[in-house]
Amino acid sequence: MQSTLKIAVQKSGRLYDGSMKLLKECGIEISNGNNQLRVIAANFPVEVFFLRDDDIPEYVQDAVADIGFVGENVVRESNKQTDTIEQLGFGKCRLSIAVPKSGIFQSIHDLNGKKIATSYPTILSGFLRENNITASIHEISGSVEIAPRIGLADAICDLVSSGSTLFTNELKEIETILFSEAVLISNKGLSAEKKTILDSLLFRIRSVKKARNNKYVLLNAPNDKLETICNLLPGMRSPTILPLAEPGWSSVHSVIHEADFWNVIEQLKANGAQGILIIPIEKIII
Ligand code: ATP
Ligand code: MG
């Protein structure tokens, strides 16, 4: 029988949707309609285990699962022996130290001798040690942001994405300890057969990630501005140029990286490009 790659995914919570969407975009059909804890894919040799995110690093270390999709923050905190193979591009957040807005603390050095509440004692203690700060750590498993208001701690160290929870609780961020996103972790002793399946999955994941970070652009350019416009658009190799039926004009096709997008579009327009269409890309295979 062909072996399957066992993937651990968060059962419910902030990483569930991103993980399922990624598998779907990789063409892997997982139907979890009955809220099962283990589902075998219909068209790819993987099975998915749905677990609490905190348990994923240990299960991957112990080969209960071969790989897992989990927050880098959880991987770092759990300190298990796994390999981090790929950043997955979702579940972005940061682990930060925050203090009451109205208080006297301005920097982490004001926290010497104070008490910090967190669910991340390992990462926090490492950070305090590196920065020569002697604060005590009060470990709590949830609702960390209310700790200062109820007199449980002077500061907190917690995950932040938009910052709205901090704002509502009248806290301000004074230091970021870690930037985190979902990552793919792997067991260290995968068999050759499982490695082959993982390579094939990684090939799909990388194609999906590249496509997400790029847009297809299609525009009409006056021929006398073609060279300038093409220099703005590197494309995968170089842009594709086709003559339009209207004399003096060409149609230009290319790919733009998300990060350069608005800047490039403005320059294209300024150089006479018209009828600019931006189209999402589903996969990029290089
Ligand atoms: P579980 O029940 O599986 O233990 P949980 O309550 O510990 O879930 P979630 O709140 O669902 O965890 O968060 C899962 C992960 O989502 C976090 O570990 C982190 O990597 C990521 N994440 C992204 N943004 C945030 C945020 N603003 N707050 C908390 N986690 C975030
Ligand atoms: Mg958890």
Describe the structure.
- The radius of gyration is 24 Å and the shape is flat.
- With 286 residues, the protein is α/β, with parallel strands linked by helices.
- The protein is 27% helix and 32% strand.
- The protein has a six-stranded mixed sheet. The protein has a five-stranded mixed sheet with strand order 8-7-9-6-10. A four-stranded antiparallel sheet has the order 13-14-12-15.
- The chain binds adenosine-5'-triphosphate and magnesium ion.
- Magnesium ion binds next to loops.
- Magnesium ion (MG) binds at residues 52-54.
The SSE order reads: EHEEHEHEEEHEEHEEHEHEEHE
Rounded to an integer in angstroms, the radius of gyration calculated over CA atoms is 24 Å
| Overall geometric form | flat
Question: How many β strands by DSSP?
Answer: 15
Ions, cofactors and other ligands present here are: adenosine-5'-triphosphate, magnesium ion
Structural class: alpha/beta
With helices defined by DSSP (H or I, 4 residues minimum), what is the helix count?
8
Main sheet? Answer: 6 strands, mixed
Question: How would you briefly describe this protein structure?
Answer:
The protein is α/β, with parallel strands linked by helices and 286 residues long.
Reconstruct the topology from this structure.
Blueprint: E1 5-10, H1 16-25, E2 38-40, E3 46-51, H2 56-61, E4 67-71, H3 72-78, E5 83-87, E6 93-100, E7 115-118, H4 121-130, E8 136-139, E9 155-160, H5 164-168, E10 171-180, E11 182-186, H6 192-212, E12 214-222, H7 226-232, E13 240-243, E14 249-257, H8 261-270, E15 274-280
Parallel strand pairs: 1-3, 1-4, 7-8, 7-9
Antiparallel strand pairs: 2-3, 4-11, 5-11, 6-9, 6-10, 12-14, 12-15, 13-14
Bound molecules: adenosine-5'-triphosphate (ATP) and magnesium ion.
